[in-house]
Amino acid sequence: VGPKKEVAECKEKFASSVDPTVSQTFMLDRVFNPEGKSLPPMRGFKYSSWSPLGCDANGRCLLAALTMDNRLTIHANLNRLQWVQLVDLTEIYGERLYEASYKLSKADAARGELGDFSEFQRRHSMQTPVRMEWSGICTTQQVKHNNECRDVGSVLLAVLFENGNIAVWQFQLPFLGKESITSCNTIESGINSPSVLSWWEYEHNNRKMSGLIVGSAFGPVKILPVNLKAVKGYFTLRQPVVLWQEMDQLPVHSIKCIPLYHPYQKCSCSLVVAARGAYVFWCLLLISKAGLNVHNSHVTGLHSLPIVSMTADKQNGTVYTCSSDGKVRQLIPIFTDVALKFEHQLIKLSEVFGSVRTHGIAVSPCGAYLAVITTEGMTNGLHPVNKNYQVQFVTLKTFEEAAAQLLESSVQNLFRQVDLTDLVRWKILKDKHIPQFLQEALDKKIESCGSTYFWRFKLFLLRILYQSMQKAPSEVMWRPSHEDAKILISDSPGMGSTEDDQEEGTSKQASKQSLCDTGKGMDIDDTADDSLPQSSDIGGREPMEEKLLEIQAQIEAVEMHLTREHMKRVLGEVYLHTWITENTSIPTRGVCDFLMSDDGYDDRTARVLIGHILKKMNKQTFPEHCSLCKEILPFTDRKQAVCSNGHIWLRCFLTYQSCQSLVYRRCLLHDSIARHPTPEDPEWIKRLLQGPCTFCDSPVF
């Protein structure tokens, strides 16, 4: 709010002021006085907001966090289980205001000095965040040095301040830090005592409209236009639209915006819902030839206590609200000729978890789970002595609904539907078989369209089935083993085996150990009990081992199909981006030979593509060389490369190059290994290296 020395002098002056309206206001306000002396320290977070998928360097989410001492920062999960602060927006915004003499525009009149308490309050309120929300990803055009235009992804972060101003930050994607900030514009909302913020995003006739919905602690709700330059297909409102103007002292707690399709009007519409006290305020926005139509009303009789949390399933428009007494309401919107109505039903958490108090709810991205934060409720009319906060999960869909949604999904990405796949995984692990209807439906999908998404879904089902068939280990997996399991590498029989064989050997060895050596690592009494019927059990165990080998063979076949499909894609990129015979650093000849080595594989597309590439290569092979001994690295395996001197290098699953460095990337489920992009790589190779895992759709980092 000003130079450090001047701020310190002003704080001392206000704290010792003889005017109690100044001294008491200053001492009790934790924004002015974060140390608080005798007051408890300001630790923890006020609010957090997740960005859409695809905003950080790994294609995952960014996290905007607002601390109790009013500091707004952005964090990213760059390495596995490691969160890094990328930027402090509070500091940057403060510097901008300082340079502009705490005026939003040059036309603003000169303000008072910092020693004036009202000016001291104004400077704090204009940069004390209340809420922040991310927009969807939009596309901007960037002009290169040669006057070419390229599309660049960007995302907006709107920050609502105490005085009603909104700062709209624009970030270029992927967001790397301060250098990725494109612009920052401040909008004056004109709302007193703002409490909540949400983005309004509406699509009409392939034209995207956007704005900001702001709610007040006094009751009003309105949409503000947001003007953006150089954003393709982006439009906004001409002027603010008031959704609710009554100052009825019902504070707006939470706002959600849900895009829906109107079955009667045959067009898209936008449903805005806001929690106001114990009621839900709703507003249906519809663009017609006459302009913007606004229908609004309140849903009453939901809760006897104020709503503490609200969430919405954007797949079907269902809204969930909860009050602190452990009651959750499910509101389903039903369209009428004019507007809509809500059907609501009560979900009593006490029937599931016993007597609980609820503090917050959230629905998973595809609506499979409802997460609820709870503490113990009253027992015999008494409150608990200690509060133990727990996150409980309630399933909202059946296994059949989740499977049907995965089969008909337009997203076609398993990672983005992980809540649905979790329901399917739980069912297979429990029943130890894949339901017949799901297997038949998936086979039909594979035959009809052949999309790799359905092959990845099939691989997921087979892997979970294989996991369900294996016997649970007798020892806890994380507990370190004290057995000496060293082996001399030169004497080991599997010296020249590939990574595939090693992985298969490990899994087979583990299953055999769990099947045969049941006594190992168990108590003596258990071993004695198991040793008696062991001879009679062998006959029953052999079919199980055969079943496991059969599933393993199916998994390998699906993995090989997915590998070949990706190899075709890589070869297609090589053919499109090489005009002459050149060494692209991708083992093109090796990939071609690997695809054609299997006589049973007859793909006309692959044969034609390979023929064109070999003609372009003009008998040149451009082999890879071992960086340790300079020997040729033959392409005999998709997972690793072994030179004649026995040096083993892992292969990148995205480009099939050997990763000849100590640092590489892995996918989230540890399925595959990929190399890091280098400055020498052309743009098309860097684009290949940005792809997800070809087996499980997980990001790679």
From TrEMBL:
Residues 618-668 form the Transcription factor IIIC putative zinc-finger domain. One of its GO terms (biological process) is transcription initiation at RNA polymerase III promoter. One of its GO terms (cellular component) is transcription factor TFIIIC complex. It comes from the Eukaryota. GO terms for molecular function: histone acetyltransferase activity. InterPro entries: DUF5921, GTF3C4, TFIIIC_delta_N, TFIIIC_Znf, WD40_repeat_dom_sf. Pfam families: DUF5921 (PF19336), TFIIIC_delta (PF12657), zf-TFIIIC (PF12660). Residues 488-541 are annotated as: Disordered. SUPFAM superfamilies: WD40 repeat-like. Residues 507-516 have a biased composition (Polar residues). Residues 6-397 form the Transcription factor IIIC 90kDa subunit N-terminal domain. Residues 398-475 form the DUF5921 domain. This is TF3C4 factor. It comes from Herpetotheres cachinnans. The lineage of its organism: Eukaryota, Metazoa, Chordata, Craniata, Vertebrata.
